[in-house]
Every structure is written in C-alpha cells, then in structure tokens.
C-alpha cells in the first residue's frame, strides 16, 4: 500500500483513508480503521495466538483471502508456520496479538478476520465447537436461521451443554460452544456432527445437515464442518457485505428481534459502549459427553460423504 501517509495510528503509518472501502460498503477505509481500533481490545481476545486468515479488498478488485503473510509484512508482526496438507507446504500465518497488528491489517484493507479454532500452544485441541446456521436465499432467511439456532440450543441443552450465539455478519447465525482440553480434535468434530444431527431431528422440515446445496430443498443448513483446522469469522469482525455489517453477539432471547444489518462498523461501537457482551455471554469451557462423541463417530463427515455422492452421481449420469 505505497503512498504518502495520511496519519499514524498505534505506530502504523496509514494511507488513502478517505477511499471507499468497497462497492456498497457505505464506509471508507478510515471507518474501518476507526472501528477496528475502537474494538481492538475485545476482538484481540478472540484472535490471540490463533493462525489468522483475512479477506482483503483492493480498489477495483474482487475480495481475496490471504493466509500466507506477504513478503512486505513488518518484522514486528508475529507469525507462525503451519503445515498445509492440501498444498504440501508450510504456510506462514499472522498472529494478531496486539492493536498495532490489527491496525496494520486495516491499512492493508483487511476487512474480514477468520481465526482458527486452535491456538499455537495447543494445536492438537480446538477451544470451541462451531455450528454455522446457513439459511436458504429469501426474504425471511435470517428468521429461518434464528429458528434453526433455537433447535441447536435445545440439542445442546439435551446434551448438558450450553453455547453463545452471534450473527455471522452475513445472512446466518453462529452458535459457539466453548470446550475444555480433554477431547481430541476428532472427538470434537464428532460431537459437532452429533449436535447438528440432533438439531435436524428436532425439526427436519426446517433444518438439514445435507452438505450438497441441491439436497437442502429450502431448509437451513446446520453446518457441522467447522472443525479441526477450520476457521470462522471472529466476533466483531466486519464482513464484505452491503453496509459493512459485523459479526455481533446477541443474547438468545433477543435473536428474534434483530437482523444482521442492525450491526455495522458505523454503529457497533456505540451499541457496545464500555461493555463486551460476547465475554459476558460465553459459558466456561465444558467437557464433551462421551455419548455425544460416540454418536458422532457413527455419522459420516459431511464433506467426505458429499464427495463420494458426487462421484456416484457423476457415474450415474455417464451410464
């Protein structure tokens, strides 16, 4: 991001602050910097020591996800190397552990922040389960996601667990379930599949665990695939959507009265005041029930099942 510095924040020279952030953002790069600097203390708690992927948007270009830090990354930005099995190489991820790093990312036009479920000091354990409620397209999509989230809440309660809920910042809902370190990554993934399946059984006309979109038939997808090395949009992270909404914590009892567009980089700080509703709502880490893990081990991994089904359908079409 070459060019004369407009001003300096947290020791980072900033440029082009008055440029539009992206089409339909209703915000400038300055708005992004202002927001992230203001929310930094709350957000860094969720980013700390987690390999970070960001989604950047340059003027006149499509947004792109950045995992490997660029060569021009300052030396003071902490990084960690992670082996990427798919590409058979080490990827150097940033660790966003301080305000300076977050402001630097903002100056690089990094709008979205997607940390891993694992931390660098314990890469063999996830710290939480994620149930991502992805509604079908339509005018009532968020309302459907809210109804599906309540199914997940009931499934958790039935299993003796509890979670917190936030808007995804897009069109859906994230249910986050903090867990302790007694379960392996594979066990946590199995438990997530079991919770999703139980939620689906509570109302199969509303919710589905079908990974293939064509098989969902207008239902809310209860996505249980955010496990292991997966990432999820961090709480308070902006999203590249019209109006630049942010992923925002909402109490279970308030879900029916909000919409994702209610929370943007222009109003979220005023809504937060001096508080941190996410920290207030998150339950303490919990052990996973053995029966939940056992049930999950009987459920195929959705991506793998979809891959085999895709191959089967391709063979059928040829025949």
UniProtKB/TrEMBL annotation:
<dbReference type="Pfam" id="PF21686">
    <property type="entry name" value="LigD_Prim-Pol"/>
</dbReference>
<feature type="domain" description="DNA ligase D polymerase">
    <location>
        <begin position="28"/>
        <end position="278"/>
    </location>
</feature>
<dbReference type="InterPro" id="IPR052171">
    <property type="entry name" value="NHEJ_LigD"/>
</dbReference>
<keyword id="KW-0436">Ligase</keyword>
<dbReference type="GO" id="GO:0003910">
    <property type="term" value="F:DNA ligase (ATP) activity"/>
</dbReference>
<dbReference type="InterPro" id="IPR014145">
    <property type="entry name" value="LigD_pol_dom"/>
</dbReference>
<protein>
    <submittedName>
        <fullName>Non-homologous end-joining DNA ligase</fullName>
        <ecNumber>6.5.1.1</ecNumber>
    </submittedName>
</protein>
